[in-house]
Amino acid sequence: MSPGPIRSVAVLLGVLAGSPALAQVPDAAAVRGASLRGVEFLRKAQDASGAWTVTIQGKKEPQTGLTGLVLLAILEGPGRPAADDPQVRKAVEFLKKQVREDGSISAGTLLNYETSAALQGLAAAGDQELKPLIEKARDFLLKHQADEGEKYTPKDRHYGGAGYGNQGNALRVPDMSNLSLWAEGLRAAGVPKGHESFKKALYFLERCQNHSETNQERVEDAQKRIVVSGNDGGGVYAVGDSKAGFDPGPEGTVVARSYGSMTYALFKGYVYGGLGRDDPRVKAALQWLSGHWTLDENPGFDTARDPEAGQQGLFYYYWTMAQALDAAGVDEITTPAGETHSWRPALAGKLLSLQRPDGSWKNEKDRWYEANAELATAYALQALARCRKGLK
Fold this sequence. Notes:
By secondary structure, this protein is an alpha+beta fold. It has a single domain, classed as Glycosyltransferase. It has helices at residues 9-13, 28-45, 64-76, 86-97, 111-125, 131-144, 176-188, 196-207, 260-272, 280-291, 314-328, 343-354, 373-387; strands at 52-56, 59-63, 219-220, 226-228, 246-248, 254-256, 332-334, 340-342. The strands form 3 sheets. The protein has a 4-stranded mixed sheet with strand order 3-4-6-5, with no helix packed on it. The model is unreliable at 1-24 and 167-171 (pLDDT under 50).
C-alpha cells in the first residue's frame, strides 16, 4: 500500500465500518514484469509508419487516437524509454503529421477523441519542442466544449459536454466517455483541477447522473420514450442515454441504467471540477461505486438477460476506475457490507490473471474495439501504472 493515511470511500462518505484484513498484495516484481511484457507486445505491434493500427475490412489502418494511448502506455511503463528511443520518436513524428491548422491532432474524423488521446501521448514524451503543439491542441479542446462559443447556455442539456467531434460537425452529441477523455487530455496539457472548463463540465455531468435531487432533466429519446433520472447515484453514457439499457420509470417513463465505467467517469469529472466530499452528487456517486464494487465485470448491465453483458468495455472499466480513484486519492473501497478492498493491489492482481502469453490483454467480448489487443493492452498498462503506486 502507499505510504501516508489511507483515504477510503467509506471515509469520504463519513461511514464508520469494520475493516477486514486486506488481501495479500501481489508481488511488485511480478507486476513490473507483466507491465514490461505488455510494453514489449506493443512495441512489436508498431506499424512502419510509427502508428498503431486497427483492421478495417481486412486492411490495417493507422489510428491517431490509438497511437496516442499506446504511446502514453509505453511511456508510463516501468523503465521509461530514453528520450531518443527510436520507436517513441517514430510515434511522435506520426502524431505530429496529424496536426491540423486549428490545433487538433486528427485524421479529420473524430476530432475530440483523437486530439485528446494524442495530446496525452505527446505530453508524456516530455519534449520541450512539442510545447507549442501541445498548447494549440489544449486550446482546441477548450474551444471544443459545448458552451457559449456554440451558443449553448447552462439551461441546455448538452452544455459543458464534449462529443466525438466529426469533421464538419464540431460537437456531435456530447457523451460521458468523450468528456472523460477530453478531461484527461486537458490535464495532460497542464489544465488544473477546478479550471473554468471543468466547472462548466459539471452541468453536463449532473445531467448524466441518476440523482433526481439534482437532475430533473426529461429527455425524449429516438423511440419517443421519456427518459427521467433515477435515484441510485450512478452515471450513464449521455443525457437520457445508457449503453447498459433502460429500466421502467414512474408514470410510463424510463430510466437510463447506471453502469460502472460511466460512474467512475462521472466521479472523476466531479473531482476535476473541484467538488468536495460533502457534495451530494459526489456522495451519491461514491455510494453507487461502493455498492457495486467488482473486478469481474463492468457492473450495471442486465446480466439476467445476457450473462456476458458485463464483459462489455471491461478494460475501459479498469482504466477509468484507476484514473478516477487515483485522481481522488482514494486507496480503499468499503462495501455496504463492511468489506474493505485496497483497489490497487486488487486490480493489479486481476489484470495479471488476464494477461495473455504474448504479453497482451484482449477482450473476447468484442465491443468498443476491445478485441483489438493493442487498445486493451494500452488500457491495462495505464491502469497498472496507477496500481504500481501502491505496491512495494
